[in-house]
Amino acid sequence: MAELNLVEAINRAQAWEMAHDPSVVVLGEDVGVNGGVFRATVGLQERFGPDRVLDTPLAETAIVGTAIGMAAQGLKPVAEIQFSGFIYPAMDHIWNHAGRLRNRTRGRLSCPLVVRAPCGAGIHAPEHHSESPEALFAHLPGVRVVIPSSPTRAYGLLLAAIRDPDPVIFLEPTRLYRLFKQEVADDGEALPLDVCFTLRAGTDVTLVSWGAMLNETQAAAEALAQEGVMAEVIDVATLKPLDMTTILESVARTGRCVIVHEATRTGGFGAEIAANLAEHGLYSLLAPVQRVTAWDVVVPLSRLEYQYMPSVERIVAAVRKTLEGA
Amino acid sequence: MATVARFEVEFTRFLDAEGEATQELPAFALDPANLLPLYRAMQLTRAFDTKAIALQRTGKIGTFASALGQEAIGVGVAGAMRQEDVLVPSYRDHAAQFVRGVTMTESLLYWGGDERGSNFSVPREDFPICVPIGTQVCHAAGVAYAFKVRKQARVAACFLGDGATSKGDFYEALNFAAVWRAPLVVVINNNQWAISVPRDHQTTTPTLAQKAIAAGIEGVQVDGNDVIAVHDAARKAIDKARAGGGPSLIEAISYRLGDHTTADDATRYRDPDVVQQQWANEPIRRLRNYLARIGAWDQEKEEHLLKESTEQLNAAVEAYLAIPPPTTTAMFDHLYATLPAGLQEQREAAQWFASHDGGSSHG
Fold first, then answer.
1. Cβ–Cβ gap B173/A103 under 8 Å
2. B338 CA to chain A: closest CA distance, Å?
3. Where is the Dehydrogenase E1 component domain (chain B) (predicted)?
């Protein structure tokens, strides 16, 4: 067992899979000699050589576009986009090709590709370094969208993503990269994709979140427990495909649901979960579903970023709203 | 001041518009046995285009992009590839696809609106045609890198049009492939038109081949109506790539004698008289004249070939028309390797509605 933070866990997962599967290659800007601007790929080029850990020219379109060609040939590329704010030039390839190749060839060709990108605000980063674009990708047929919220889940989910035979968008909350450490076995054990993780059991309200916001969500659950309100906390982890079963089972018991995400509200992934609750869980609900999200504004520069992101107070207030009249 | 770099772009043509040799032919072209398959493949493509347009006009297939007048490019390049190489085509490249072993039935199936048409039975690793402009060049560079990293002596070949040279994907892919010294051959079918926009509105550079210079690779220009010139350039580029010499760019100058697709009406934006004049340059007559001149072709052979092509084509059309539509659930079954649980419900609903409305509301 090793005490690892999230970015170290990401590094170990890639190293494990590269050591055990020669078809895995890592590519991106500064991922080789420099080991990545966040150090997610540190040591990989030294260990596996420049043919498998490629410092690419500076062009996101071609990083993902060439990775699709590699994947179609049976390599398992893990492409790093330096910040999710720079992922948009690659959207054409993700939408039009990665998620469609298997379908449009009726399974003859496939795209076992992972696109890793840091996401989220809260580290006083420059402009275009704080986005939470997960809903854009979750709208896409044919891909998976995964966001880890702890070192152990980052390790297990990234292994699962690399082993998955289809494209996975793997978004890593920068705020969690070095926030805390956990014991990580580094034993090559993957976690299941496509399931939610229940982080805390509770009876009064279900809090649903993912990524860095689980930090605030769990703090809110703790604060509420002091008041005698027992919140269940679910880490969605894989947004696409969404495991609604776990969420519906929880809400069937608690009767209340608050969805927390760092991305902006309109068209955010919380809306998808709320809609599913309306379709399949309405009669379990004792109160309207609440969403706690970033405001529908451009991610502010660092001085206002914590007013933009949901806070513990906002989550607690939303829970109290669901308890009104209870 | 000193000149720190100087570049040249060479243009090659072996046969003029009348099929007269303008210079000594390359060695492969001295044996007519090497030229006849190229001729047959070009004729078959032209017959296919005529038939496909007729099928579109009668509602038997959807929108179709003809290769009329550009047959020499696909045939010349694909004829220089090995079976284990990989073709990454655009949407006007069925001439190359047929040489690679894609069947006319498969092509019709694709244009007829059925994904099974891209599940080629022969070139299993070739990409399906790419509709978004220029993106395929990136995929081809990635395929080429896979060959390189696995130390396989294979080559990726890819086509794009003159319009696609305006896309960043094209430049990025050339640059990546060059940095990686990947075995890639990129072929521009410069047919002078990107739907309604002429070549001189795409770029002010005198050639498209010179776009290679910025990537630090070789770029050559050939007469794309001269299949010998295309084939010769492709052989050289493919051999070089296979030997570890890195990527090349070939600009093949042609002319789009037809509309952009069956959904287009080119008389809206170009002078039919100019198009008529361009027929004088087309590649099939050119090679036929040459073959006839050296005694390798005659009217009897031509009639025999046309009869043979027609029979082959008719059989392909018949086979296509006999293929029943895909099952409703097929749109779910190849989305992921394993269908996620949540999609199972949608799959069942789609199937239920398809079987209960009997397809009556959808024809």
1. no
2. 9
3. 39-319
Does the predicted model carry a pTM greater than 0.95? yes
What is the average pLDDT score of chain A? 97
CATH number at residue A136: 3.40.50.970
- pLDDT at B363 (0 to 100): 43
A144 neighbors A171 (Cβ within 8 angstroms): no
**Average pLDDT of the residues in A179-199:** 97
Let me know how many helices (H) and strands (E) chain A has, helices first. 12, 14
* A283 & A155 share domain: no
Do A61 and A39 lie in one domain? The reply is yes
Which residue of A105, A238, A249 to mutate against B (max B Cβ within 10 Å)?
A: A105
pLDDT the model gives residue A325: 73
- Which tens digits make up the pLDDT trace of A46-57? 999 999 999 999
Chain A residue nearest residue B145, CA to CA: A70
Q: What is the CATH number of the domain that holds A269?
A: 3.40.50.920
For residue A191, is it within any domain?
A: no
Per-residue HEC secondary structure of B285-316 comes to: HHHHHHHHHCCCCCHHHHHHHHHHHHHHHHHH
Among A311, A7, A310, smallest CA distance to A132 is for: A310
Q: Are residues A180 and A203 in the same domain?
A: no
**Number of residue pairs across A and B with CB atoms under 8 Å?**
140
The average pLDDT across B277-293 equals 98
Residue A202 lies in a domain: yes
Return the H-helix or E-strand segment holding B331: helix B330-333
Is residue A55 assigned to a domain?
A: yes
Sheet containing A205-209: give its strands across. Answer: A197-200, A231-235, A205-209, A257-264, A290-294
ipTM of predicted complex: 0.96
Of all helices (H) and strands (E), which one includes residue B211? Answer: helix B211-215
Do the Cβ atoms of A188 and A16 come closer than 8 Å? yes
Per CB-CB distance under 8 Å, the chain B contacts of A91 are none
Using 50, 70 and 90 to split pLDDT, how confident is the model at B360?
low
Taking an 8 Å cut-off on Cβ atoms, the answer to whether A65 and B334 are in contact is no
Is A257:A221 a contact under the CB 8 Å cutoff?
no
> For chain B, how many residues are written?
363
* Predicted pLDDT at A1: 81
Residue at a domain's end among A184, A219, A244? A184
User: Which residue range is the domain that position A205 belongs to?
Assistant: 197-323
Number of domains in chain A: 2
Q: pLDDT tens digits for B315-343?
A: 999 999 999 999 999 999 999 999 999 89
Name the residue of chain B whose CA is nearest to A143's CA: B336
Q: Is residue A8 part of a domain?
A: yes
Which chain A residues are Cβ-neighbours of B147 within 8 angstroms?
A: 73
Interface test with A, best of B172, B186, B331, B339 (most A CBs within 10 A): B172
Out of A20, A93, A128, A129, pick the active-site residue: A129
- The residue among A142, A162, A184 that closes a domain is A184
CA dihedral B173, B174, B176, B182 (to 10 degrees): 110
- pLDDT tops 90 at residue B358: no
